């Protein structure tokens, strides 16, 4: 089989990590990278070219697929450019910061029959796959309610990252779209949503402008519900998803790392990652953190920890296999055509509108853009 060639837009913490993983895969090679600030060292390490802009990167004849790992607000331009140049796309999460942008990106990639995979890496955690299997086997019955928390405390920063700036990152909800995406995978798209919160404890030059408390309610068809909490104003940090069914429940704990199935008869424990060693390493990292908890962020100078590297590798392996011609499994079709990511952003947009307008919002308002006239 011939080698698949990749290009990367944005080679900071994540893009560089993905590039190193790609070069370690069989019949895969990074041909070129573009990054306005951090291309030199990684290009040397990957033994690849540096391009000076997105256009020339995407126009390269030797490139089959473009990996996009620029800051969240700068994903759209390279996705459209890659699609116009007939390149498949892997785009980091959140793929965009509005439903409209997601639509445009999906339209462009779909027109040319291209793969548009979203970097929703939770899908590649062993424990998440185990949870889905247990649910499919009927072990917890019908899912009635899910609850997720991803929060911690943020101290003053010497340098404020783009990840803390609402217009580029989207804030905690968009930046940490994983849990919302996972819950919608399990329960289907939310119908009506509400969110309260705000920036309650992080003002001034050493902080960004994102909200540090977000409290979310999702309503689904058939009287099913979910709640989520995100933010950096929580001194007691947590990171978990709890799935409550009619016959049992599942806890996916991403901080004190484990997956637990609880039924009236038993409590059974599973790994979240691929080995006990990786689970323990992740737990140790969180225990060692005095602050931040589940809201910690990587920087271009850092390399991802073992647990993150292991799921990034699984994710890239999967994308590469698809690039090599393997058929996409039914479960992964919405992950590989952008539609699952778009459904998460639609719900996030509805939640944002809910907080702005101080009312419940139907996700349909976002999908049809029929925001009530008196809201405008
Ligand atoms: N799936 C995950 O768990 C996960 C984890 C971390 C980051 N991410 C995502 O990966 C992306 C990158 O995050 P990161 O942690 O690597 O951030 P980072 O700040 O470490 O790196 C971003 C890089 O993009 C470059 N850049 C800035 N503007 C650019 C532009 N217009 N075009 C191209 N490159 C540009 C920067 O110079 C920097 O090198 C984000 O979308 C983030 O949400 C995903």
UniProtKB/TrEMBL annotation:
Gene3D superfamilies found in the cross-reference section: Dihydrodipicolinate Reductase, domain 2, NAD(P)-binding Rossmann-like Domain
A molecular function GO annotation: nucleotide binding
Domain spans labelled Gfo/Idh/MocA-like oxidoreductase N-terminal: 4-120
InterPro entries in UniProt: Gfo/Idh/MocA-like_OxRdtase_C (IPR004104), Gfo/Idh/MocA-like_OxRdtase_N (IPR000683), Gfo/Idh/MocA_Oxidoreductases (IPR051450), NAD(P)-bd_dom_sf (IPR036291)
Residue stretches making up the Gfo/Idh/MocA-like oxidoreductase C-terminal domain: 132-363
Family in the record: Belongs to the Gfo/Idh/MocA family.
Protein known as: Oxidoreductase
């Amino acid at each position: 089989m011939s080698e698949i060639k990749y290009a990367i837009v944005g080679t900071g913490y994540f893009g560089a990590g993905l590039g190193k993983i790609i070069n370690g895969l069989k019949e895969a090679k990074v041909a070129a990278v573009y990054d306005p600030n951090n291309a030199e060292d990684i290009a040397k390490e990957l033994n690849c070219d540096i391009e000076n802009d997105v256009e020339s990167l995407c126009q390269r004849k030797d490139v089959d697929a473009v990996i996009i790992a620029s800051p969240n607000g700068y994903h759209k331009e390279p996705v459209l450019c890659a699609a116009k140049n007939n390149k498949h796309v892997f785009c980091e999460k959140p793929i965009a910061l509005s439903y409209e942008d997601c639509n445009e990106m999906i339209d462009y990639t779909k027109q040319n029959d291209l793969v548009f995979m979203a970097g929703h890496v939770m899908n590649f955690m062993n424990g998440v796959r185990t949870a889905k299997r247990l649910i499919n086997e009927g072990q917890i019955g019908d899912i009635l309610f899910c609850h997720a928390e991803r929060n911690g405390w943020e101290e003053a920063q010497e340098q404020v990252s783009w990840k803390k700036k609402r217009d580029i990152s989207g804030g905690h909800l968009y930046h940490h779209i994983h849990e919302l995406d996972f819950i919608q995978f399990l329960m289907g798209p939310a119908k009506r949503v509400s969110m309260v919160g705000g920036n309650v404890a992080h003002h001034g030059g050493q902080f960004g402008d994102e909200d540090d408390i977000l409290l979310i309610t999702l309503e689904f068809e058939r009287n099913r519900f979910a709640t989520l909490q995100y933010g950096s104003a929580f001194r007691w940090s947590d990171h978990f998803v709890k799935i409550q069914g009619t016959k049992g429940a599942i806890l996916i704990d991403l901080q004190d790392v484990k997956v637990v199935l609880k039924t009236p008869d038993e409590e059974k424990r599973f790994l979240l990652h691929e080995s006990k060693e990786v689970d323990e390493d992740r737990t140790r990292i969180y225990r060692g953190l005095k602050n931040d908890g589940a809201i910690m962020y990587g920087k271009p100078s850092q390399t991802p920890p073992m647990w993150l590297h292991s799921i990034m590798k699984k994710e890239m392996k999967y994308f590469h296999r698809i690039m090599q011609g393997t058929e996409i499994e039914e479960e992964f079709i919405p992950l590989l055509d952008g539609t699952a990511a778009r459904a998460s952003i639609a719900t996030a947009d509805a939640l944002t509108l809910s907080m702005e307008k101080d009312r419940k919002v139907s996700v349909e308002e976002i999908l049809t853009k029929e925001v009530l006239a008196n809201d405008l």
